[in-house]
Each structure stands twice: as C-alpha cells, then as structure tokens.
Amino acid sequence: MRREFDVVPVLVSRLDVKGAKADTGVAVNDATITEFFESRPSILVDNQITEICSHLNQAARS
Amino acid sequence: MTGTLRRLPGQSVRDERDKLLNDRLIDYFLVAFAFCSLAIWEWLRRWLGMPFAAEVTTIAAIVMLAYCAFRIFQLRKEIRNRNQAEKGERRVSELLSQLRRKRYVIFDDLLADDSNIDHVLVGPGGIFAIETKAYSVFGNGCVGVDTDGVLRLSNKPAIGDPLRQARARQQTSKRYCRKKCGENLTLCRS
Predict the structure, then answer these.
(1) ipTM entry
(2) Has residue B187 got a pLDDT over 60?
C-alpha cells in the first residue's frame, strides 16, 4: 500500500484572498469550502482513509 | 463513563481564553479590590478620628485602578479575539462536516508535536491541514498575497503570517502521519 501523496495546507478565511498559490498555501473563502474539497481528484481509497484515520483518531482525543 | 473524549473545534483557543480569564483577569480584579479596600479603610480611620494620610492610599488606589483598568481593557481585546477565533473554527468545522457524505473524515483541534492543527481532513481528495482565520479587516478591505507569499490585509502584512502558519501545520501533519502510519504511508515532499 505504498503510495505517494502530500498533506495540503489550506487557509480558510471569511474573506476572498487574491493571489494565493498552491506553494504558499491554498486559501478558500468559507462560502466555497465544500466545493473546494469536493472538486479535488480522488487519490485515496477507502482502506487508506480508514487506516490514516485510525492513527489520527488517537491525537483527536484528550 | 471514563476515557478520553473527542476534541471539539476551537478547543485549544477556548482553553487559552479560559486560562486568560482564570489566571490573569481575576488577579487584576483582586489587586484593584485590595487597593480600594485599603483606601476605604483609611477614610474610615479618618472619620473615626485617627488622623492618617488617606490621600496617599487614595492616590495609590487610583494609580492601581487605572493600571488594572488598562490591563483589563487589553485582556478584553485578547478574549474577544479568541472568541472570534473559536467561532471561526466552529463555523469551519460545521461546513466541513457536510463533507462526511463524500467519505471525508474531519478531526478538529488535532494535537500533534506540541502544537495544534485547527482541522485535519482526510478523504478521497487526500489529507488536508486546515488553518482557520476569522479576521475583521479594516481600511480598504483588500485581502491578498504578495510576491513573497505573505498574506496582506488592507495592504499591511497580517499578524502572525497565517499562510506560514498553514504551511507549518502542513509540516506538523506530515511528520505526525509519517510517525503514526510508518512505512505504509509515504508522503511526498512539497
């Protein structure tokens, strides 16, 4: 299950940010946030998502 | 009913705000109260016929009151900013939760490597480290990124460089995922 993929930085603001590039962090207005993620091409399959989430789940608790 | 609970959106911000309220605000109120009590006591001494320099303690109380009022005013601003930040994170969490129907999983206020990531989203589109900023912009209201990659609000650099923060969260998430998922997950370099 060795795959190459990245963590994408996303800055969410209530305001439209002009001139944001992928290498400086992607900025999305909160009105368009769901469309932004929905329009991303699929790179992870279900079992990969499940595995990653099982690890992150530990850090999501306190 | 024991065990750890899932972290809530804006929990770190809320903890910081509560710390401000509990540790600092109460101190200023106590100092102000102590000096006012002292002044009242000195005035009572005078009325009871025991001459004493009540003016000195009154002046001290006024100075301390002015100082504490100033500090409380500053704290109010910090608390207001944290309230705004918490609301922003909760709002974004609410919006991101709509993506559950698209097989996305959202983690709020993720603690990793001594820092917190506002939201981590994992789904078919990949892994996303999300930094939320709930700004109010004054001036011309123009928000943009300059040629150096710095976010500017009304032509002034935004405090704390939020885009740099977003990239830092990305690196933290990467390190954390690598550490936790090991060889099964290879994250490419950005």
Answers:
(1) 0.84
(2) no
